[in-house]
Amino acid sequence: MAAKQRIGLILLLGCLSALGPFSIDMYLPGFVDIAENLRTSEATVALSLSSFFIGISAGQLLYGPLLDKFGRKKPLYIGLVLYIAASFGCLAVTDVNQLIVLRFVQAIGSCATAVASIAMVRDLFTLEESPKVFASLMLVIAVSPMLAPTAGGYLIAAFGWRYVFVFLGLMATVILVATAIKLPESYQPDPSYSLKPKPILTSFAQVLREPQFYTYALISAFVFSGLFAYVSSSPVLFMKVYHLSKTDYGWVFAGLSVVFIGASQVNSLILRWIGSRQIITYALVAQCVFSLLFLAFAWNGLINFGSTLVFIGLFLCCLGLINPNAAALSMAPFSKNAGSASALMGAFQMALGAGASVLVSLFSEDSLLPMPVVMAVASSVALLALLVGSQLIRRDIIGVSGSTFVGH
Q1: Burial tier of 158 (Cβ tally within 10 Å: 0-12, 13-18, 19+)
Q2: What is the reported pLDDT for 401?
Q3: Which parts pass through the membrane (predicted)?
Q4: Please, are residues 36 and 96 in contact by the beta-carbon 8 Å criterion?
Q5: Reported pTM
Q6: What is the Rg, in whole angstroms, of the alpha carbon atoms belonging to the chain?
Q7: Which class is 3-183+194-403 in CATH?
Q8: Which residues, 6+ apart, have CB-to-CB distance to 395 below 8 Å?
Q9: What pLDDT is stored for residue 106 in this prediction?
Q10: Collapsing DSSP states into helix, strand and coil, what is residue 369?
Q11: I want to staple 325 with a disulfide (CB 3.0 to 4.6 A). Which of 103, 253, 276, 338 is the partner?
């Protein structure tokens, strides 16, 4: 594959992957305005974010089998059209319940892009290239938290929160056109793949029997739940507790995203010297330490705006090192069932993310504590999963050949 073609392909796959994060981040500065306009509370508005996470989690299980039966592009078209319709539907909402439902539908559409992009990395690149490609994808994905809340803050300040969904609908339209023209079909449809419940469940069961998959998919899911706790609580935390403006909040969110981006790119360099397993181990131990310190400071009232930024930044730095390696290790054993594996991995992430976002929304709106609690629990459980899962992987003879390439 030529270098120019490779870069273009990674960029387009990154745009597909970034649609979901853009949908999450861009309307965050509008939480207060949405609550006022729809006559509800910010905590209730946050449920529209939770419904988005739930939609992505459920939808990924739907698209996984579709991607394995019909190839990658046809399900992509369906998801993008559904997303566009739901985005423009958000313009007409008159109460928060309508917004919550439409955000769920929007998520069902957007998760097609997330599942397909991960599966296509497995289709189009060698197993040795996958961690670096995932890190490159993360560079494109991570630009969205830099651009989305900042652009959203200015857009909301100038035109109102509903225009965020106009932008998202137009963005998805451009991606749909680019997908149709530039993205190759990377997987031939499999007519023998059945969409009946029993074969689908059998395919998922085959994936779940692979210790390497469920170990690293669970690690990724748990550390991501800490990220979603931060995303869900950050609008209230920064704009109501620390009294930032919409635009200032966007810049703070963007600045923290730079840390995430930097770590994911440093990961590509570190892979020259040590393997994915070692990177995950070191980063996860560090993340546990940082999140527990964050919790201890918050619990004892020793936290302020500056130290909050430091602890969140450290957590995101570790996440940037963990995630691309966990994704590569999770997907490594699969070729035929890559779509189902990608769907399950994404479903784990979004299900735990939805739980984390609902959990933090249940607490007092002027409390910082729920965020470090979720971060500390998530990283600690992920470390436990690594310790237990590593033993299971060593004993699994079948998985050895599929796991050694990145585990040196």
Answers
A1: exposed
A2: 45
A3: 7-24, 44-63, 75-94, 100-121, 133-157, 163-181, 213-231, 251-272, 279-299, 305-322, 343-363, 369-388
A4: no
A5: 0.70
A6: 20
A7: mainly alpha
A8: 211
A9: 95
A10: coil
A11: 276
